[in-house]
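User: Working on a comparison across species. This one is Cytochrome P450, family 1, subfamily C, polypeptide 2 from Sphaeramia orbicularis. Can you predict its structure so I can line it up against the others?
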Amino acid sequence: MGQEPQTQEKTAWTLRLACGGQRHAAGSNASHHLAKLAKKYGNVYQIRLGHLPYLDAFIYETMRFTNVTIEGQFIPKDTVVFINQWSINHDPLSERTPYLNPSRFLDENGSLDKDITNSVMIFSAGKRRCIGDQIAKVEIFLFFAILLHQCTFEKCPTQDLSLDCSYGLTLKPLDYKISCELHLNSAVTALSVTEKT
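Assistant: Here's the predicted structure for Cytochrome P450, family 1, subfamily C, polypeptide 2 from Sphaeramia orbicularis:
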């Protein structure tokens, strides 16, 4: 803004007037614009977000894609940047340990702790959040509920299972072998034994 004094002046006057400042610079385009706004809305306190188009325009101008340097790393404009959700969900500062422990999401009464579950980024966040997150959660819930109700899973005795995975845009589990036994088999066996006796 130091290189654009007119932009700075107009934006500053917008803020001053919107926040209750009554100073006006003679001949200033900004003060003229803001005086019109104050007249339109009755007083400066009635000017709300969306009614300060120059301030909105200034904010959009500062948010345009451009070259940027973050912590010494130059990122050229038009670079596609992804959030590493795995790193966010496994941040050691968040006290999440790397092993599987569903109990970490339960409170002392055995109910889901919403504060903790809301801190896990599964479907991204903000405006770019997956619009199908609710249906996906229901589908995942039903998928696991049916599988766990109908089947027993066991690891191959000659292979150690790991939570490690290969990284890309999505995480892919390493190759593994498991066995799956339908509970139906044991129910049928029990029923046939009962019928024979």
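For your comparison, note: The radius of gyration is 30 Å.

User: Helpful, thanks.
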